[in-house]
Amino acid sequence: MNTRIKTGLAMLVVLVGSPLRAVEFQAYAPVLNVEPVMETRYQPYTEQVCTAPDNSARDFNVTATSIGADVRQQTRLWQEQQTCRTVTRQRARQQIVAYRVTYRYGEETQTTRLSHDPGERMPVTVSLSPEPR
């Protein structure tokens, strides 16, 4: 049903009904623009950070019986001198928290904020009430 016909019917109901009674009905308005409203949220996470010893930490004075034993011994010494710690960091994430929606009903253009994207048209509640005489 056309919006003008609905408006006319609603006005007729108001005129015929009790004198100071408001009438409401649902209609649809075309959506002109939808913009997501973004918010940066920070999420904590932990990670292990290790600092490697410099090469001067290697002990070349210790003689091993084989090359394999030497490599194992130097690796063990290097790992013993390595320091690790757990740190908490923040990871930034952009998240859509709402939608800024611009729509037109009749001759008026309105902007509102919704929790969802309404698509090409959105329901609006139209309220008609008589003017006091």
Task: Give a structural overview.
By secondary structure, the chain is an alpha+beta fold. The chain has one domain. It is about 20% helix and about 50% strand. It contains two helices and four strands; from the N terminus they run αβαβββ. The chain has a four-stranded antiparallel β-sheet. A hairpin with a 2-residue loop joins β2 (about 85-105) and β3 (about 110-115). The longest helix has 15 residues, at about 65-80. The radius of gyration is 36 Å and the shape is rod-shaped. The relative contact order is 0.31. The mean pLDDT is about 80.
What are the main properties of this structure?
single chain; 133 residues; alpha+beta; 4-stranded antiparallel β-sheet; 50% strand
Write the layout of secondary structure elements.
Layout (H helix, E strand, L loop, with lengths): L2 H14 L6 E29 L15 H15 L1 E23 L2 E7 L6 E8 L5
Antiparallel strand pairs: 1-2, 1-4, 2-3
Count of DSSP-assigned helices: 2
Strand content: over 45%
Count of beta strands: 4
Q: How confident overall, as mean pLDDT?
A: 80
Question: Main sheet, how many strands, which sense, barrel?
Answer: 4 strands, antiparallel
End-to-end Cα distance, whole Å, is 31 Å
**What percentage of residues falls in helices of 4 or more residues?**
10-25%
Q: Give the C-alpha Rg.
A: 36 Å
Low-confidence stretches: none
Give the spatial strand order of the biggest sheet: 3-2-1-4
Number of domains: 1
Shape: rod-shaped
The topology string of helices and strands comes to HEHEEE
